[in-house]
Amino acid sequence: MALALAWAAKGMYITTPNPRIGCVIVCDGEVIGAGHTQPVGQAHAEVQALRDAAARGNDVRGATAYVTLEPCSHYGRTPPCSLALVQAGLGRVVSAMVDPNPLVAGRGLAQLSEAGIQVASGTMAEQAYELNIGFFQRMRHGRPWVRLKTAASLDGVTALENGESQWITGPDARLDGHRWRARASAILTGIGTVKADDPQLTVRGVEAEIGPFVPPRRVIVDSRLDIALDARILQGEPCWIVAAQPDADKEAALRAAGHEIIMLPNAKGKVDLPALMQELGRREINELHVEAGSKLNASLVREGCVDELLVYLAPSLIGPGQGMCALPPLARLADKKQLRFHAIDRVGSDVRILARFEDRQPPARAVSQESN
Question: Which of 46, 70, 287, 308 is catalytic?
């Protein structure tokens, strides 16, 4: 299963909106076929592994397939993988997890079992969950896994008071941030950041390392449609611009340039952020990568839209400046937003921290099944 997970990771940047799945077929202790899910509409991991075994001249009848997620059992963009495994004559299928997709949810394993194939699940479930945390989030809650990225000094400053922020962290951390962009289905920012920094919010500098990738959709929260038509973020692939107050002329100009306007007002005339998360889930966004200013960061946190923080800390002190998150002052320390460290790593001269909100800790992941 560890090898299957390594194969799944090969599809890190290409499978969205499908999960990243790996499959390894083993006979008499030897790997006779392996593969991972291809871009959407193409073969899934199980079919790739079967093709690999056939290309090597290996007979898979009676062999064991290790798959990082339950084989799908429905006709979607591709035929069911469970049917392919049955027709190939596998003897045993071990999955890391049961598929949370309501169209599958145990039916794949059941079909295999009914065909006389021994099945089991729950092996290395935690690692499989982490690889597809956004897919699980969307299947279970209808919204993406939201990762808020920021870079700061040790005293928590993300920019000077005049807005200067380039560069607080070093080049290794900045490249690492682009890797995290590349694995996301979409990148979200606010109009404040667009005006202040004129960012592109594209993946750069890591293309040769990561290989082919699906460019993440760029999403701009802009309640009043204040964005300038020559903003750099509007160049290249179309953006989704989320607004709350209509502006017929600006909307027409943006649509003429290929961008889409999504109107999601709340009662205060601002963008309804929880509704936006549901809309992004409906649009098959698995992982949402946020790079915004302190005001939008605070709104997302306050509205319960953020699952984890991706924080790069530089070994420096800046003093007065802008912070990560412009939350209102607390009267009691007991009311603080509590997180748990998930991972802490050195990246060049900086430190990368993944911290998850306590109420977003994943539940028990595995659903074990055994059958003959």
Answer: 46
Distance CA 46, CA 220 (A): 37
How many residues are there in the chain? Answer: 372
Helix, strand or coil for residue 258?
A: coil
Determine the Cα–Cα distance for residues 49 and 25; give it in Å rounded to an integer: 7
Tokens found for residue 68: 């990082």
Enumerate residues 6+ apart whose C-beta is below 8 A from 66. 1, 3, 4, 23, 24, 25, 26, 94, 123
CB neighbour burial string for 290-317, b if at least 16 within 10 angstroms, e if fewer:
bbbbbebbbbbbeeebbbbbbbbbbeee
Q: How far apart are CA 353 and CA 173, in angstroms?
A: 11
Residues 336-361 pLDDT 10s: 999 999 999 999 999 999 999 987 76
DSSP string, 192-231: HHHHHH-------S-HHHH-S-PPPEEEEE-TT----TT-
262, 244 contact by CB (below 8 A): no
Listed as ranges, residues in the chain with pLDDT below 70 are: 74-77, 361-372
Which residue type is seen at 352? R
Pair of tokens at residue 365 = 């992941």
Hey, is 51 helix, strand or coil? helix
pTM for the full model? Answer: 0.92
114 a catalytic residue: no
8 A C-beta contact, residue 180 and residue 287: no
